[in-house]
Design a protein that fits this description.
- The chain has 751 residues and is of the alpha/beta class.
- It folds into three domains: 250 residues, Arp2/3 complex 21 kDa subunit ARPC3, CATH 1.10.1760.20; 158 residues, Reverse transcriptase/Diguanylate cyclase domain (Alpha-Beta Plaits); 264 residues, EAL domain (TIM Barrel).
- The strands form five sheets. It has an eight-stranded mixed β-barrel, surrounded by five helices. A five-stranded mixed β-sheet has the order 5-6-4-9-10, sandwiched between helices.
- Helix 12 crosses helix 13 and helix 17 packs parallel to helix 19.
Length: 751
């Protein structure tokens, strides 16, 4: 085994420079080994020993051929050393020939091969020296145990067989120990752990070759005709080494693109982090994920998807440049590892330069299967040591940055701790949530929706809560944001949909025909399977499709407008109603509003709650109602917190109200009690239209005068729940403030 001169990238290792530990080690080995080489060769002509020239020629030929046909050994993704079948013949030669013959026969092909490969002149000198020391140690062991002279061989006897095997063991240990130390210093690994791992790896190949050496001598002593027979197991060992190298390559590389895979990334990242800690430098980890790859794969087929992945791999590798590792992690996700020169303080600027090149390489369209594709990718950057010094930590934070870039619809983003929700506590909560789904810990509360003019209850919105076994009842903003980033959100939404339809079905059996609204997440709105899942749930519970309203936000739609339009269109075909929730807070255009197959606009509560005091909010509410009606949509006002707001909405023509003035979200039992009370008191709760000539409404008609509201009675939700006490005609004239509204999460999973 010998030290290679080149790394896996083909570049000369920097550690050859004077002053490095590797340079000092190689210098010492060379200075000790070369004098022994000269001594052995000098005394070659004075031994006076009679040699079997035929046997000598056979063994030398095997040594030379084996040395010129080495097998490169890839260790942990790096081409770090070689194994040759010359070991068997060299050790056999050591037993039957003078030491000078052995070192000379080993050195000539070794130097010729190193010169042919244009290795640095220090490498053949080191290899000659370490082989001489190895042969010297093995020969010394054999002579010590057999009583032979160090430089002069003797005929091998039967009792010399065990010393020959022990000499082979010394050869194996010294050879792999000297080379393994050099490799460990090259890769900047700890020497002892590397040597132990190296010896374990080499035992199955080099160890077998060493064990065959005494057998070659024994067979040749009986008949030289048996020596070729021993080539069969030697060839098997060589083939075994080749297969082991191929298997390791396959284990560390992606089959489709040939790029390093996740395992190789981890190995190189571990080395790079160790170097950063020793030198004070920094490194860059970039994760890249293709946008809309699933749609391309589903539309054009997996073969085209594979061609696209291969093309992206080529682009990224070309843009990354030398000494930068580009790996494919799986699917449409890639990783880039760079260790740019310079201090850690400059690593941010180097990362920006790198990701600018990478993103630029993705701008050129590609034509596959006759279709011109504009391929885009999102990139996330994590820096060491700024963002972490552990492998999983850096990869996780680059992943956070990448998804931040996707959400912001940008090309790339650098990790920001303020955006990172990936904490151990969050992971624990998500695991508990998954278990809670299976145990039925999610419960629904329902908030009524009433017709503005009559006060008739026309439906309810299903809002999810988590009855945690330890922490009690959790509001959606405590678990929905975390679930939205995982596959849990899909199962959660389907559970909410199924429970809501079951409850509506029970209400229908009791003679209460109410609509039910359920919120959709981003993940579900882009899932082409959603219409089928909704149709199955409706059929399972026997609920007419027109009673179900699915609510989405503007931002949810704009995350993938094309697919959202497709999914919403299929849902409308089923007869399901579609509502745009929190309207006015997103960034959808009127053009998309026109294209969307929707039935209802829900004006965000921030505008409704502010219209009493802010003229601009009042104008926005009035304009939105007019726009919605002109498009044939029903308008729902969220956040109606008091009777005054209800009265302001009456002349504007708002169709439906929802808010804490009517009722807080209630469990099913509380909803049934509320419905009974509301039916009794609704006549007192609905305000009348403002009289002509009343004070002007900010931004719209006339504002009812201050004081008592005509016909106003005790307002359900303002005090005790209807039905909880006596409900008579005696009604306080003043408006009773509604209780404060607790913060409701606007996470889009039926919250």
């Amino acid at each position: 085994m010998r030290v290679l001169d080149r790394s896996s990238s083909g570049q000369l290792p920097r550690l050859r420079l004077p002053g490095t530990p590797l340079h000092h080690y190689m210098t010492v080995v060379t200075l000790v080994g070369l004098p022994l080489w000269l001594w052995a060769c000098r005394d070659l002509m004075h031994t006076g020993v009679q040699l079997d020239l035929t046997l000598l020629a056979v063994l030398v030929a095997g040594l030379v051929v084996g040395e010129l046909m080495p097998i490169s050994i890839s260790r942990q993704g790096r081409r770090s050393d070689e194994i040759t079948i010359s070991t068997t013949f060299a050790l056999a030669l050591l037993i039957v020939a003078p030491l000078g013959v052995v070192v000379l026969a080993q050195s000539v092909p070794l130097v010729l091969d190193d010169v042919r490969r244009k290795k640095h002149w220090t490498r053949p000198l080191f290899n000659m020296a370490q082989y001489t020391l190895t042969f010297g140690a093995a020969r010394g062991t054999y002579c010590l145990l057999t009583g032979q002279a160090f430089l002069v061989p003797d005929v091998m006897r039967r009792e010399d067989l065990l010393p020959a095997f022990l000499a082979g063991a010394v050869f194996f240990a010294v050879n792999h120990g000297s080379v393994g130390t050099a490799v460990a210093l090259w890769t900047q690994e700890r020497v002892l752990p590397h040597l132990l791992e190296d010896i374990r790896f080499q035992l199955s190949t080099g160890g077998l070759l060493v064990c065959l050496s005494p057998l070659v001598v024994v067979a040749s002593a009986f008949s030289l005709a048996l020596v070729p027979v021993l080539l069969l197991p030697i060839a098997a060992v060589r083939r075994s080494a080749q297969l082991a190298t191929a298997r390791e390559h396959d284990a560390l590389h992606d089959v489709l693109t040939g790029l390093p895979n996740r395992a190789r990334l981890h190995l190189d990242l571990r080395r790079a982090l160790g170097e950063c800690q020793r030198t004070g430098s920094g490194l860059v980890v970039v994760l890249a994920d293709l946008d809309h790859f699933k749609e391309i794969n589903d539309t054009l087929g997996h073969h085209v998807g594979d061609l696209l992945i291969s093309d992206v791999a080529r682009r990224l590798t070309s843009a990354a440049g030398q000494d930068v590792l580009v790996a494919r992690l799986g699917g449409d996700e890639f990783a880039v590892l760079a260790t740019p020169p310079g201090p850690a303080s400059e690593i941010g600027a180097r990362a920006t330069e790198l990701v600018t090149r990478l993103s630029g390489a993705m701008r050129e369209p590609v034509t596959l299967a006759g279709v011109r594709l504009d391929v885009q990718a999102s990139f996330g950057i994590a820096l060491a040591p700024d963002h972490g010094t552990e492998i999983e930590e850096l990869i996780a934070r680059a992943d956070v940055a990448m998804y931040s870039a996707k959400e912001e619809r940008g090309t790339w983003a650098t990790y920001d701790p303020d955006l990172d929700e990936h904490t151990p506590q969050r992971l624990t909560m998500l695991a508990e949530l998954r278990d809670g789904l299976g145990r039925g810990e999610l419960v629904l509360h329902y908030q009524p929706k009433c017709e503005t003019r009559s006060g008739e209850v026309v439906g309810v919105e299903a809002l999810v809560r988590w009855q945690h076994p330890v922490r009690g009842l959790l509001m959606p903003d405590e678990f929905i944001p975390g679930a939205e980033g995982t596959g849990i959100i899909s199962a959660l939404t389907l559970t909410v949909l199924d429970t809501a339809l079951r409850d509506v079905s029970e209400l229908s059996k009791q003679g209460r025909r109410l609509g039910i609204a359920v919120n959709l997440s981003v993940r579900h709105l882009t899932d082409l399977e959603l219409p089928r899942q909704v149709a199955a749930a409706l059929a399972r519970h026997g609920v007419p499709a027109e009673l179900l309203t699915l609510e989405v936000t503007e931002s949810t739609i704009m995350n993938d407008p094309s697919r959202a339009v497709t999914v919403l269109g299929r849902l409308r075909t089923l007869g399901v109603r579609i509502a745009v929730d929190d309207y006015g807070t997103g960034y959808s255009s009127l053009a998309y509003l026109k294209r969307l197959a929707i039935d209802e606009l829900k004006i965000d509560k921030s505008f409704i709650m502010g219209m009493l005091d802010d003229e601009n909010d009042a104008v926005i509410v009035r304009s939105t109602i007019e726009l919605g009606h002109n498009l044939g949509l029903q308008l729902v006002a969220e956040g109606v917190e008091n009777a005054a707001t209800w009265q302001l909405l009456l002349p504007l023509g708002c169709d439906v109200l929802q808010g804490y003035h009517l009722s807080a979200p209630l469990p099913m039992a509380g909803l049934l009690a509320w419905l009974d009370g509301w039916e009794h008191d609704v006549a007192y709760a609905v305000p009348t239209l403002p009289a002509p000539g009343a004070a002007a409404l900010p931004g719209a008609g006339a504002l009812p005068g201050a004081g008592a509201l005509p016909g106003a009675g005790a307002l359900p939700g303002a005090g005790a729940l209807p039905g909880a006490g006596a409900a008579g005609p005696a009604v306080p004239a003043q408006l009773v403030p509604a209780p404060a509204c607790p913060a409701e999460s606007r996470g889009r999973a039926a919250c």
